[in-house]
Non-haem dioxygenase N-terminal domain-containing protein
Amino acid sequence: MSSMDKEWILKDRDSLDYEIGACKGTGFFYLINHGIEIELIQKALEESRNFFCLPLEEKMKLAWKEHRGYTPLCSERLDASLRYQGDLKETIYIGPIEDDKSYLNQWPSREILPSWRFTMELYYEKVRAAGRRLISLIALALNLEEDFFEKDGPVDPFLRLLHYPGVLDEKVLGSSAHSDYGMMTLLVTDGVPGLQVCLICRLALISLFVSVLFG
C-alpha cells in the first residue's frame, strides 16, 4: 500500500501525480505527517472505548436520529444481500460542529464522561483540516483549481466512532462488504487487524493487517 506524506507533497508538487496515483489503484493509502498529534489520536481512541463500555441503556439515551447519535449492535447491514440479522458493530455518529444543525449532535453526560465532548470536538477539527487539505491536493492532481471541491461551500464531514466486539460466528461480519458514501474516508485503527480491500479488477480480496492507516 502506498504512503502519502502531506508535508513532502507540499514541497514537491511535481510528485503529486505519483503520490495521488493510489486513488486510481486500490483507493487506499497511508497518510503520514498529517498534522494530528498522536497524543490526541490516542485520547480520542481512549474516549471512544470509554463510551462503548457504558451500559446499553446509557448509550441508548443518544439513540440515532437525524444522522447523529448511537446505533447498537446489528442495527446496520451494509451488504443487503446477506441474510443474517446485521453487522456486528456499534457506532456513534457526530456531525458538523459549526453548521446550523450542530445542535443535533448528541453528547454523553459530562457527569459520566467529563472530557468526551471536548476531545471529540478537537479531534473533529484536526481531522477536518487534514481532510480539507487532502481534498485540495486531489483537485490539483486532477488539474482542477485547488479549491474546486469547496466552491459551493466548505466540506463538513461526519465523524463515526465504531466498536467491533469480535465475531464468534464466521458467517457474521463486523462490517459487511460496502463502498463508503461521501468523497473520502480518513480511517484510524487501534492496531487490531481486520480491514479488507476488494480489488474488483483482480477479483481478489486482500487482508490488510494494518496498525494505523491514518497515523
